[in-house]
Each structure stands twice: as structure tokens, then as C-alpha cells.
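Morning - glycine inputs below, output right after.
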Amino acid sequence: MKTFEVELGERSYPIHIGAGLLSRADLLAPHVAGRQVMVITNETVAPLYLETLRKSLSGFDVHECILPDGEAHKTLSTAEKIFEALLAVPCDRQVTLVALGGGVIGDITGFVAGCYQRGVPFLQVPTTLLAQVDSSVGGKTAVNSRLGKNMIGLFYQPRCVLADTDTLSTLPARELAAGTAEVIKTALIRDSSLFEWLEINVHNLIGLDAAIVAEAVARCCDIKAAVVAEDERESGVRALLNLGHTFGHAIETGLGHGAWLHGEAVAAGICMAADLSVRSGLIREDERARIEALIVAAGLPSRAPAGLSVERFRSLMKVDKKALGGNVRLVLLNAIGDAFVSADFAQDLLDQTLEAMRAA
Ligand code: NAD
Ligand code: GLY
């Protein structure tokens, strides 16, 4: 097992990464506040892992809330169902919520934990690659609106992240690829050696080679823990973690949440950011080609869907948490491993990217 600490003063917490951790009662119990626990999961993950988790929490009064599966359910109305499940027990303000699942479950559980009785503790038990390398760490919680992705939410940190890499063995190949998009993103913003490692190992990563998966999760969590410790509320460096996301969120909202996986939309978004970086004279064409080749090798899309017009894309990009005063801000690349936030890219170059980077 590897452990990293997210250093946030008295709200610091550990990220444990390793095989078989779901059975480790000793890692979970210290972070449970009172007697009551509510596990939030979904109908896909529950039959696979809920029983093992329940055994590890056997000393507590454990309740469960099993949601329908999918991004389309990451909504206020689903959150309300969780609030009502908590109130029906009734759960008091010492209840600990446990998010068992991917980023959808993690995001909505964190949102509910931050709001229920003005805030109760929660633990992240991520079971997708995307959630283990990114979404479970850092306390970004949210639900979607029909008009914008992740637009309703709060920063609210978990008490612990327990990433059992064995759970990835049941993950569909398409979901593994989607998680790989966030690994590639992490490398591109901060770590060129991770990018080079991925160029060699991406097939083993999506092929679920245990050592390669464990290394990818650990390297990403190490970087994410440092970024979050430096800039918890995204006033600076943390915004870099959104590389590809302004494009990607426009794709997700434009197609309807759930049509493309988040990681797929981010993958196309990364290629669009790389294309704009070339047009802006920031990176070379051969660097862009390496980025696209890695995305394609991971089995991910490198182009936006054909159906979104440039006008629609542009208006969707304005509904973005990085936009300030209606001005879109984008994460661009100075080099592989070196990203920055730009507010003064040329609009005509962005239009060229939107036009050129649509699937035929
Ligand atoms: P997801 O939560 O929808 O999970 C993907 C699919 O895999 C689902 O069908 C799920 O039921 C299933 N699944 C989960 N674990 C499984 C397992 N071990 N075996 C078999 N099936 C399993 O999607 P995701 O990719 O994990 O997360 C995407 C979400 O995360 C998006 O809503 C995105 O906005 C959010 N996100 C949040 C952050 C953040 O910082 N909070 C960062 C990145 C992404
Ligand atoms: N996934 C982006 C962040 O956590 O900041």
C-alpha cells in the first residue's frame, strides 16, 4: 500500500492506494465520526463491492442508499433523494457518508455531505480509474444542471480516500480508457516524465497490468495532493487540472450529460487545447502529434463530435466555472508537462480550432 497526505492543516487527510483495501476495517474506522454510516453507491457497484465494504464497517450502524447508475442522475433531484434517505433513518449530524463508486457517486455524495445538516463527514472509496486518479481527491463536489456541467456544488474535503485497485478489475474497457484521459491530463500539466512513461505503458495501463495501474494511480494522486494543498479553492495552480475540460464540458452539455463519458470529452478537449496551443505558437506540431497519438493509443476520441456547430460550441464554452465576466479562460500548453491559464488567446484561432477539430 502507498499513502499520500493531502496537507490542509486540520482538514488534512490520507489517500491510501493498494490492492484489497476494501477489506481493511483498520483504514476506514478511524475516519468514522459517530455510530451511523450511510454508504451511497449505485445499482452497478452495489452487487460487486457493497458486501465487502459492509463487512469492513461491521462495528457501525450501517445504512445504504443505492442510486440509479449514470451521469444523467448527477442532479439536484437525486441529491434530494439522498437527503430524504438520511432524514428517514433519521441520521444525525455525526453520520459519516461513504461514497462507493466512480466520480458520479463521489461528486454527489460529497455535495450531500457538505449540505446535510450544514456538513457531515464523508469518505471516498473510488472504484473507477478516473475517480482513483482524480475525482476522489481534492474536495470538488457538484451536481449538474441541464444548462451546465458541475455548476452547482461546493469545495468540501473528504476525511479519507481509500483506493482499492482490485476494484478496477470489473471496470468496462471504455471506462478504463476514460480514466486514462485524466492520467494523460495530469502528465501534460505537470510531469513530462509521466507523459513519456505513458507513451511506453499505456497499453499495459488499459490492459490492467497491476503494477502499472498502481503506479499510475500513485503518481497522479501524488501530483493532485500537492496541487490541492497549494491551491485548494482554485485561485491559481489548481485551474491547470482543467486542461481540456472547458472544451470537454461543452461537449458533455451539448450532447446531453451521459452521451459521451466525461473522460472521452476531456480527451477530445485535450486535443483541442493542444491544437490551439500550436496555432498560438506555443507548442510544436510534433508535440501536438505525440499528444494525439497517446490519446488515440488509449482508445479515446481526439475530435469533438460532428454535431456541435462552432456557434453552439462557443456559447456552451461560456458556461464554465473558469469564465470570468463572460470571458472564457482556457488551459493551454507551453510544452508537454507545462500548462498555463490563458485569457488572451486569439478568438479567430479558437474558431479555427473549433472548426478543424470536429469529427468528419
Ligand atoms: P461514473 O461514476 O459514471 O462511473 C463509470 C461507470 O462505471 C458507471 O457505470 C459505474 O456504475 C461503473 N463502475 C464504477 N465502478 C465500477 C467497478 N469497479 N466495476 C464496474 N463498474 C463500475 O464515471 P467516472 O468516470 O468514474 O466519473 C465521472 C464523473 O466524475 C463526472 O461526473 C465528472 O464530472 C466527475 N469528475 C469530478 C472530478 C472532481 O474533481 N470532483 C474530477 C474529474 C471528474
Ligand atoms: N478535477 C479537477 C480538480 O480537482 O481540480
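Note: The chain has a mean pLDDT of 96.

O.
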